Structure formats: C-alpha cells, structure tokens
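Study both lines:
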Amino acid sequence: MTHRYQSDPGWIYLRLPSDVLLKEQSRPYDLKKNVWVPDPEEGYLEAEITSTKGEQVTVKVGDSERTVKKEMVQEMNPPKFEKTEDMSNLTFLNDASVLYNLRARYKAMLIYTYSGLFCVVINPYKRLPIYTDTVARMFMGKRRNEMPPHLFAVSDEAYRNMLQNRENQSMLITGESGAGKTENTKKVIAYFASVGASQLEAAGAEGAKPKNTVTLEDQIVQTNPVLEAFGNAKTVRNNNSSRFGKFIRIHFNRAGRVASCDIEHYLLEKSRVIRQAPGERCYHIFYQIFSDFKPELKKKLKLTKPLKEYVFVAQAELTIDGVDDKEEFKLTDEAFDVLNFNEQEKSDCYQMMSGIMHMGNMKFKQRPREEQAEADETEEAAAASDMFGVDTEMLLNALVKPRVRVGNEWVSKGQNMEQVSWAIGAMAKALYARIFDWLVKKCNVTLDQKGLSRDSFIGVLDIAGFEIFDMLLNALVKPRVRVGNEWVSKGQNMEQVSWAIGAMAKALYARIFDWLVKKCNVTLDQKGLSRDSFIGVLDIAGFEIFDLNSFEQLWINFGWFTVL
C-alpha cells in the first residue's frame, strides 16, 4: 500500500523508504554488550560494556572509557526496532530507548510516534506538507496499523469507533507551552469537519454542497481565527500560545455527518490584558485592530497615538517575527462573517478592545492632604467611555468614588491613586473575560444547527499549556494548572474543577502564611494581619501570578513585606 502514496510530497515526513530503513536496521549489535549510559548533556549515550566488577561497570563511550554503577546502565534494543513507529513494541521500554527513538525519528523529520494508545508529537517549528487534503484522504477509513503514525490516524480511529460502537469518543491533547497543542487541535477539528463533509458528498448530488455556500464544517474551522485572536498571545517560547483551555464537542448524526458543535472554555489568563512579561505580547486582537487593515475603523476607535504609548499592550513586544497583524486581522474579520456575526456585533467587539487600551492610559492625581484621587485629564477617559457607551463622568466616579453598600444604604467611598490603579486593572480584566465568554457563546449559537439529530459526539480537549516557573511560582500556580488539567481529563465538569482548585489553593496559601509567621517570629497583633486576609489576597491574585515582577508588586501593594 505504501507505494501508492510515495509520490505525495508529504510522504517522506511520514515513513522512511524501505531500503533506507533496512540499511539502518542492519547495524552490528550485541545484546550483552550494547547499552545506554547516562550523560549530563545528551541524556544518554550509546556504550559498550568492556568489564564488570561487582556493582561497577566499565563501558566504552566513543574513544573514552568510564565506570558507572550497574543500576545506571540501561539495555539497548536490537536494531530491528530502529525508528520504530510504535514504542510499545520495544523489547526494552526504558527512558534511554524512548528518548533515542523519538530523537532519531525527529532528526528524520518523522514527528509522530505511537506509544500504545498514545500518539507522541514533537514540534518541528516549521510547516510540513502532511496536513493537506490529499494526506487526509489517505487516512480516511484505514486501520491505524495500516498507516504511519499521524494525528489523522488517531482521529479516524475515534471516528470509526464512534460509528461502529455507537459510543462517544474523546481525544486529549496536552503538553507544555510551545509543544504544538493549538496547531494539532486545529488539525483534528479540520479533519473531523472534512470526514463529516465526505459523508455528505457520499450521499450523492442531492446532498452536495452548493457553490459559495457556507457549511457547518466551514464554520467549525473558522472558530479558530476568532478564538486565537482573542485567546492567544506571544510568549517567550511560543508565538501563538493559547492562554486558555477548551473542550470542543463535535456532534454527528447516525450516518456520520457533522450535526453541530459546541465549545467550553476555562482558565483564561486575564492578567495578560494589563501586564506582559519581557519577550511577550498581549492578546493578538489588540495589535490586529491597530493595524491598517481597516483605516476607517482605527479612526473610529480613536487609536491616534503610536502603539508603544498604549500602556496595557506595550509593556514588552509589539510585533512578532514573520507575522503580519494586518493579514491576521483580515482572517479574523472574515471568520466573524462566516460565523454570522453582524457588523454591529463586530464593531462592539473592536470598540471594547479599544476601550480597554484607552483605560490603560487614563491619568489620575492625588488631592493634596487627602486620601482621594481625581482625574488628571479626561481625554483618554472620554475615549474609553465612548467605546463602552457610558457617560465619562459616570465612569470616572465609579473609579475614584465607587459606591458601596453600608447596612441598607449606598455610600460613596473615596479611593487613592493606588486603589484607582487596581480598580482600572480589575475592570479591564473583567471586561475582557466577559467579552471572551460572550464570543464563545455566540460561536456556539452559530454552530448549533437545528434539524439534524445528535447521535454521538467526539470531544477534543486542548489542555492549557504550562510554563517552567521559578520555584515560588511553581508552588503557587503550577499545582492549580496541574490539578485542573487532571480533573478535566478525567471528565469532571467545570464547576467541580473550579471548586477543587480553589480549595487546594486556599489550603496552600494558609500553609504559606503559617510558615511566614513562624519563620519571622511575628504575631498577628504586632502587624495587624490576619490569616484569612492573607489567603484572600493570594486568592484574588489567582492565576494572575505569572511572573516574579507581578508577584513582587502584589506583595508590596498589600504590605506583606512588613512581615519579612
């Protein structure tokens, strides 16, 4: 069967020619001598045992010899397993063998490898011709062992199992930030849309797609540009990192045709709206609306200053190498049209983004001898309120003199400069989170097709990526991400996940507080602190603690350095 596909330009990135593989599998091998030994730089190196004395083994590595403990030596697989497509077939399934096989396949640009039921992918950081319609058709209707490892093979197996067993299926896509989760999720969704459409074509001319008609399959695929614009950003390790997790259900009717789709999202990184670490950017949409794709829109949004002067979005990088924000905005705007967003809804989204940018430039000053802030100038406040559709004075009063309930009455509470700054940030993050939530709901309304039965679904879970944090942030943030990912992967709903994460975080914060008090020998009465207030402060911060600078600022703002 292989020869049928060898003419396709993508085939060389899926399976090696048989003669090349046969040559590699014919190298000399001695089961008793050939082993792997640990190496601080390479992980493991190929070695040959020369002698053994008690628990010590002397091995030859290249032109040198070294002595290691016997327990550190790992077995090497016979050469017949060279670049094996499924690592569960290995005679010795140890760390060294797994690392070697993945590394060897990656060097040959074979980025997909099976490990039993799992499919491991290593990001090549370049485009390969293995996701074309032609390649997708190769995998349709094929058993997994008939074809080389590929995401399409896993997807097709899920699709066939759904149809044959009449059971819902799920795919879990996980990995660290930059591993390629977002791109692979997009390929999975596109494949299911394609295979679902093929069932429609198989029904004959009566069910064929009219020209220039937007189908449900088209709309499912076009959710990607919208969600990426509002939910993805540049990080140090990834130019298009998803800053939220999502669970996508694609529903099919009994014949295997796509019937509808719905999306759930969770853990949106709100802190990025107002703060970016060095080498990163805010969400793509802010830079897209600032591009010149629609000059009249930019004028309407009152974005007249240079981009670097908008504080909320200009704290680090302003551009991404190889990415044209103007072209990306065109794709986002067209995707809105495919998803049935009308002009007013699109305009409202863009205006809200502009309003947040103007909010970041609002200026205030402290009244002399008073704990009360007031507006220093109203130009940016007027622009922001115009974008939000509210009165300027009302917006300013909500920030400098918010109303609070005291007993049965509402009273105005004075705010100082620091409190106003926090209020602006909190409002910007809350607005963005609600806009994002509305976008997802609007997409779900469009994708909820009436008149087609929903017999089964395939769920695709794109788990939020994790970064390599410093030690303190690992203690505060990463456990939340890990527990959230674990619970979601086990099928728990969002309410259960949120409850579990919150309970775990508060318990952790309480332990941190107890440790600080004990370490510094400080009593609560001395500093006027309380255990509950400390827990509350860190709980408010939540997932917004993503870099040491922001954590330090949080610490300073709430006066906790007095403890230390």
Observations:
- The CA atoms of residues 245 and 464 lie 4 Å apart.
- Residues 469-564 form one domain.
- The first helix runs from residue 18 to 24.
